[in-house]
Amino acid sequence: MGEENQSYVTEFILLGLSQDPQTEVLLFFLFLVTYVLTVLGNLLIIVLIHIDSKLHTPMYFFLRNLSFADLCFSTTTVPQLLIHLLAKKKSISFAGCSTQIFVFLLLGGTECALLAVMSYDRYVAVCKPLHYSTIMTQGVCALMAFGSWGSGAFVSLIDTSFTLSLPYRDKNTINHFFCEPPTLLQLASADTYSTEMTIFGMGVGILLAPVSLILVSYWNIICTVIRMQSGEGRLKVFSTCGSHLVVVILFYGSAIFTYMRPNSKTMKERDKMISVFYSTITPMLNPLIYSLRNKDVKGALRKLIARYS
User: Fold this and answer.
1) What is the pLDDT of residues 106-135, one digit of tens each?
2) Which residues of 156-172 are buried (b: 16+ CB within 10 A; e: fewer)?
3) Coil, strand or helix at 9
4) Most confident residue range from 150-164, 247-261, 291-305
5) Closest CA to 122 of 62, 69, 68, 65
6) What is the Cβ-side half-sphere exposure of residue 109, based on CA atoms within 13 angstroms?
């Protein structure tokens, strides 16, 4: 009888990152700058790869997909965060929360797969250079990109379905700045064990499996580089692969911490900061890391500037 008197949740209240008005204003400008840099940086990467014929290679094809995913990934959470930092009522409808979870997981899962595909591309380029053009054909690259987006969509559909199938009654306050499965499960009015195990299983497939592929790829790359006699060749390989490895460590490290551990009943400030890192900071850093450490991208940027100056 008591359960019948409980009403289903139609909207959620997000507590955000701070309750102090002055701190919220400071965070607004900080995240605004971060988002602008994210949009401009990733758009620049996409444009440079599109207009420069030298960048029409498998490596930059995957990088363009990664930049597009990063751009959308950040847009899923940051604009709403900016609005809520200035608004008195930080609410989101149940439908809006559901959509945000699905899109966020779709893009996050896709990025996980793309980073693994990019590590395999570097493995073939370094360890099998004579067979690179026959292995990484245009059709194979398109299939890998499609598989990356497809795997992200599959994981997102499963996780979102299990998360939203739970009943949510009365409790609607989320101690977070956006809707994310681990925080939403804390409000469920039923046992969440099966959903937690499903999310964990999906995490094994979309997080640990790609990480394993990346580690194997880079182990083979390192072994091949050590045998190289040319110091210039070693430097070029480390420059190209180093940037990708930095992105992998930043993104996977924070994502694994959130999704590959037992669900806590309370959201700690540390957990929110880690979510900020992989949902906001990493998409901004990706284009900076790739452009500052990549001669081809910097060369394309100089040509673009020269063309319009």
Assistant:
1) 999 999 999 999 989 989 988 898 999 999
2) bebbbebbbebebeeeb
3) coil
4) 150-164
5) 62
6) 27
